[in-house]
Write a sequence for this structure.
């Protein structure tokens, strides 16, 4: 395992106390804390390099543009993108997925066509497809899950019999921690001619991702879930697909020539980056990639999976606790309930001990309905979490049980 | 494992009376022939309430609810429906105001006997994110009587 205490020292926020306790931050699937290196990169950008990109003819603007484009190349390398111009900077996963639905989807999906999603998709990989299908008169087919929270491959096969135009799924589930066999799903979907959209919000921060190996068509990621600033993220796509797609937003930067009543568009990726981009976010994202690569994604994945295992072992020893999701092929996300204690009550009680977890539907209401719970409590780990954090979680959970009249095991 | 006792603040929040209403909610279910019905959700945590009233003239004869959610929202709904029985609508709205005041830390409101069992929820005022939970049924009440 990683030396979490040493890593934690790089994260100023984690030195804080919360309600008189050491802050135990276990909501990393929602967002992550930022290391000094990222904070410094953003501050340094504003102190030394800030100017509007792709416009100015002066040296400062050229340096800002170089920093922005270097960040693009860095992100491309991180996920082994097809080419740097196949990386479109977005506000995050949500915007990247809306871009695919709004541009590729609108151009390629017609009445009577099918779009396939899964019952474990985050609302951001579901609602854009609902909107598209409603607009086009297309069918949205949701693939069911197995009882232990994996994509049901036989139902996935049945959904593919409809020869969908688009198949969308998450690489890693934010609510269950399931790591899906993304390359296999992409291969099956391609065999029936579908375009494959992978929600990489929870995989990019935690696994060694190679989009060419996955062989998807579109891959969405969020910077803030991988140590970078909020409002940074990217759509990674096959350049030929982006070339053929209509623009998504209109405005500056995305155009080539503009007449009174029409315009021609810029090259990719700029065609999809209307307006002044989030340069500080891109610069911060590049610094986050450097930080993560220095430690190594394999080691990070191993560390989190080990922590999740320790957490599952400890939590299931508490009488009344149910842990959701598969036993293996899972990431560092542990979703659970405790008897009849509502997850929101659990979160309030844990907060008094400085333990931050998420309680709710995790933007996955169709999944919650299938689990037959209104909500779950969720602890999600990252590289700065250690066994001490799991101990704090379990200890505080026993207190929650005591308040609600459960006897500690 | 750390098994030290919970903070006093938490014990005040999760009192016996609150857990009792959470686990054995009063007036849970639906009414036959309600005159007023409102559904509300708290998007933060997914708490849900369907409140139904039978108002006769100006008096709430009966209030029932169907709900899913945390102990605070469910206990508040249970206590509220008990209190509303046979209350004139203006008095019910005045109670909603007292309840809101108590949630915002008004100590006089927390001692106001007219709030009945609900005074057990006074501790919620120390947990700002939970105030919405306690007020969800009351917001449903206000919506219900004002929408008619
Ligand atoms: C699986 C998954 N998809 C999509 C999102 C949306 O990401 P963002 O809010 O950064 O756009 C999240 C995070 O909330 C997520 O966990």
């Amino acid at each position: 395992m990683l030396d979490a205490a040493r890593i934690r020292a790089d994260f100023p926020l984690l030195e804080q106390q919360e309600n008189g306790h050491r802050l135990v931050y276990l909501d990393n699937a929602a967002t992550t804390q930022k290391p000094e290196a990222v904070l410094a990169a953003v501050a340094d950008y504003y102190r030394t390099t800030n100017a509007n990109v792709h416009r100015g003819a002066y040296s400062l603007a050229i340096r800002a543009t170089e920093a922005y484009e270097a960040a693009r190349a860095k992100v491309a390398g991180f996920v082994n993108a097809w080419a740097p111009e196949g990386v479109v900077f977005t506000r995050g996963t949500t915007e990247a997925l809306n871009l695919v639905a709004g541009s590729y989807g609108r151009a390629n999906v017609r009445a009577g066509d099918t779009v396939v999603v899964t019952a474990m998709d985050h609302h951001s990989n579901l609602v854009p497809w609902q909107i598209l299908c409603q607009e086009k008169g297309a069918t949205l087919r949701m693939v069911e899950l197995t009882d232990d929270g994996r994509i049901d491959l036989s139902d996935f096969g049945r959904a593919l019999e409809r020869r969908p135009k688009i198949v969308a799924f998450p690489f890693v589930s934010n609510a269950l921690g399931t790591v899906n066999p993304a390359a296999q799903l992409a291969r099956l979907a391609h065999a029936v001619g579908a375009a494959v959209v992978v929600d990489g919000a929870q995989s990019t921060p935690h696994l060694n991702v190679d989009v060419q190996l996955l062989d998807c068509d579109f891959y969405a990621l969020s910077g803030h879930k991988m140590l970078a600033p909020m409002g940074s993220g990217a759509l990674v796509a096959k350049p030929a697909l982006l070339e053929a797609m209509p623009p998504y937003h209109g405005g500056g930067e995305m155009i080539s020539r503009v007449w009174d009543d029409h315009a021609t568009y810029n090259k990719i990726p700029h065609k999809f980056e209307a307006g002044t981009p989030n340069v500080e976010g891109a610069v911060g994202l590049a610094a986050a990639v450097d930080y993560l690569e220095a430690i190594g994604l394999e080691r990070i994945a191993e560390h989190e999976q080990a922590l999740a295992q320790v957490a599952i072992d400890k939590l299931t020893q508490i009488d009344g606790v149910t842990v959701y999701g598969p036993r293996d092929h899972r990431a560092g996300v542990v979703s659970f309930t405790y008897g009849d204690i509502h997850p929101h009550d659990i979160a309030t009680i844990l907060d008094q001990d400085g333990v931050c977890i998420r309680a709710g539907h995790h933007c996955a209401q169709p999944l919650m309905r299938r689990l037959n719970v209104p909500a779950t409590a969720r602890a999600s780990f990252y590289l700065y979490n250690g066994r001490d954090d799991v101990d704090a979680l379990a200890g505080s959970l026993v207190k929650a049980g005591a308040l609600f009249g459960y006897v500690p095991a | 494992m750390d098994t030290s006792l919970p903070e006093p603040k938490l014990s005040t929040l999760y009192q016996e009376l609150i857990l009792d209403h959470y686990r054995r909610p009063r007036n849970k279910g639906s009414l036959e022939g309600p005159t007023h019905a409102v559904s509300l959700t708290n998007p933060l945590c997914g708490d849900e309430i369907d409140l139904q009233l039978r108002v006769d003239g100006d008096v709430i004869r009966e209030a029932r609810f169907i709900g899913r959610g945390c102990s605070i929202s469910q206990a508040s709904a249970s206590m509220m429906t008990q209190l509303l029985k046979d209350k004139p609508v203006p008095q019910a709205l005045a109670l909603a105001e007292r309840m809101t005041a108590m949630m915002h830390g008004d100590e006089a409101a927390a001692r106001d006997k007219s709030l009945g069992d609900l005074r057990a929820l006074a501790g919620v005022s120390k947990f700002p994110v939970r105030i919405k939970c306690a007020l969800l049924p009351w917001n449903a009440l206000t919506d219900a009587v004002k929408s008619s």
About this structure: The CA atoms of residues 97 and 125 of chain A lie 6 Å apart. Chain A touches chain B at residues 340-345, 348-349, 352, 359-361, 365, 368, 374-375, 391-392, 394-396, 398-399, 402-405, 408 (CB under 8 Å). The first strand of chain A starts at residue 17 and ends at 18.
